[in-house]
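The following block was generated as part of the benchmark described in Methods. Ligand: erythose-4-phosphate.
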Amino acid sequence: MDFFIDTANIDEIKEAHAIGVLNGVTTNPSLMAKEGIKGKVEVLKHYEAICKIVEDKVSAEVISTDYVGMVKEGTQLAEISEKIVIKVPMTLDGVKAISYFTSKGIRTNCTLIFTAGQALLAAKAGATYVSPFIGRLDDIAYDGLELIKQIITIFDNYGYSTEVLAASIRHTMHLIKCAEIGADVATSPLKVIISLLNHPLTDNGLAKFLADYKKVEP
Ligand code: E4P
């Protein structure tokens, strides 16, 4: 399973990259706003900076809602680097834009997926990734992980090459379950990735090893 980091924070992207387990980055307009990035020029520069850190797969989201605007904006984002994946919302114009980008060989990530039907439509349009939002479904008492399973089954039934990118991940169990179910990618905040390290028996075990080593030190 590929690990993406779900942030627009440069320091966090650098930190995750330095660990050596990072396969890509996802951003969204809320995450960009959190970093104070505003206006087209700043946004393009920020994506350029992210692309300098990671090897590939940087999702850059369009904010246009109409087909023409999405195509124009996405084309401009794609010109920043071959690493850019155009993130397009699950709307009718969005699906049309995905079909357009697919015909041009530009990779896409269809975002705001909450049903298997939406994922199927995006796959038929040739999306490189679909992003089902696990956490936001859990928030409204639906089973986000069940949706991941359902989408994987459908894609496997017909051999769609579209990858299932589990998004809106809130904790390590989401991440581990995604790997168990067979999601292609999981995008998570840095703290969730780092939290995979944690177990009190690991900490206690290490402390004991070091203490025992010191006992016999010359
Ligand atoms: C990533 O592609 C999504 O935009 C992101 O995971 C949404 O996460 P949230 O539900 O925590 O905002």
